[in-house]
């Protein structure tokens, strides 16, 4: 069967919900960034404090972008019930003072522990150019893609709890400068990410009603994995290989 005929037949035969969910979930074991060599080094205690700081500094750019992409998503829908549900994601990261400090604040506790000045972190001037490009590509994707495809890009949260558990155990065991308070961001995500992923998965399964949209949703999960992978490629190139670009954070001794 030639490729053209196969695509025509697929377009006329969308996956059933179970098949569609299986296709979405299959992306993780193949592409999720828990497979990246940099994470193996991070979780295995093989990095210096300066290298861990470089990771935390660059990852802040991603953390800061999450509520912006979620606000962009909400701005595109007239469905009040959907906005009421999705806004939890913004609250999770930006907080709802004074009751909830939010994930970004918890991330800054981590960068504080690593000796980074808060203004330097939040200014993001020391972040790698590739980090900034990858993060903003994700925000633009959510702005520009069909709403259900934009929602699907968040489904890497299906795979997140395992990497958070690995990170908590590995970093607590291997780095003396890390403690339970510093790992609070990841501990909170163990409950937040599954809640968000469950809602997004049902939304995507309900509204991706054609095979074309289903395929686009699977590609959205792959795209998001690529965004996460690209950030680690940049970190590995700069802080393991040692090719730090001009203007980027430079740990002592590198």
Automatic annotation (TrEMBL):
Catalytic activity: 6-(2-amino-2-carboxyethyl)-7,8-dioxo-1,2,3,4,7,8-hexahydroquinoline-2,4-dicarboxylate + 3 O2 = pyrroloquinoline quinone + 2 H2O2 + 2 H2O + H(+)
InterPro entries listed in its UniProt record: Haem_Oase-like_multi-hlx (IPR016084), PqqC (IPR011845), PqqC-like (IPR039068), Thiaminase-2/PQQC (IPR004305)
Single GO MF descriptor: pyrroloquinoline-quinone synthase activity
Protein's name according to its UniProt entry: Pyrroloquinoline-quinone synthase
Pathway this chain belongs to: Cofactor biosynthesis; pyrroloquinoline quinone biosynthesis
Gene Ontology BP annotations: pyrroloquinoline quinone biosynthetic process
Keywords from the UniProt entry: Oxidoreductase, PQQ biosynthesis
Domain Thiaminase-2/PQQC: 23-233
Family per similarity comment: Belongs to the PqqC family.
One Pfam family per UniProt: TENA_THI-4
Gene responsible for this protein: pqqC
Function: Ring cyclization and eight-electron oxidation of 3a-(2-amino-2-carboxyethyl)-4,5-dioxo-4,5,6,7,8,9-hexahydroquinoline-7,9-dicarboxylic-acid to PQQ.
Keyword Oxidoreductase: yes
E.C. numbers: 1.3.3.11
Species this protein is from: Hyphomicrobium nitrativorans NL23
Enzyme class: oxidoreductase
């Amino acid at each position: 069967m030639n490729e053209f005929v196969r695509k025509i037949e697929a377009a006329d035969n969308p996956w059933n919900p179970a098949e569609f969910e299986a296709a979405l979930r299959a992306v993780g074991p193949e592409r999720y960034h828990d497979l990246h060599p940099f994470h193996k080094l991070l979780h295995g205690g093989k990095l210096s404090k300066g290298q861990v700081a470089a990771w935390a500094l660059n990852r802040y750019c991603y953390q800061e972008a999450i509520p912006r992409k979620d606000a962009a998503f909400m701005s595109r829908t007239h469905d009040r019930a959907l906005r009421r549900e999705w806004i939890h994601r913004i609250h999770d990261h930006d907080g709802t003072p004074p009751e909830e400090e939010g994930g970004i604040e918890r991330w800054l506790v981590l960068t504080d522990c690593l000796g980074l000045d808060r203004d330097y972190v939040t200014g993001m001037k020391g972040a790698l150019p590739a980090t900034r490009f990858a993060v903003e590509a994700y925000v633009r994707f959510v702005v520009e893609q069909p709403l259900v495809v934009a929602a699907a890009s968040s489904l890497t949260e299906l795979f997140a709890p395992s990497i958070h558990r690995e990170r908590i155990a590995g970093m607590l065991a291997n780095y003396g400068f890390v403690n339970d308070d510093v790992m609070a961001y990841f501990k909170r995500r163990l409950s937040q990410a599954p809640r968000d992923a469950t809602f997004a998965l049902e939304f995507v399964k309900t509204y991706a009603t054609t095979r074309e949209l289903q395929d686009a949703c699977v590609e959205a999960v792959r795209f998001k994995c690529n965004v996460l992978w690209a950030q680690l490629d940049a970190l590995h190139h700069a802080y393991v290989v040692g090719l730090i670009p001009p203007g980027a954070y430079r740990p002592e001794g590198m």
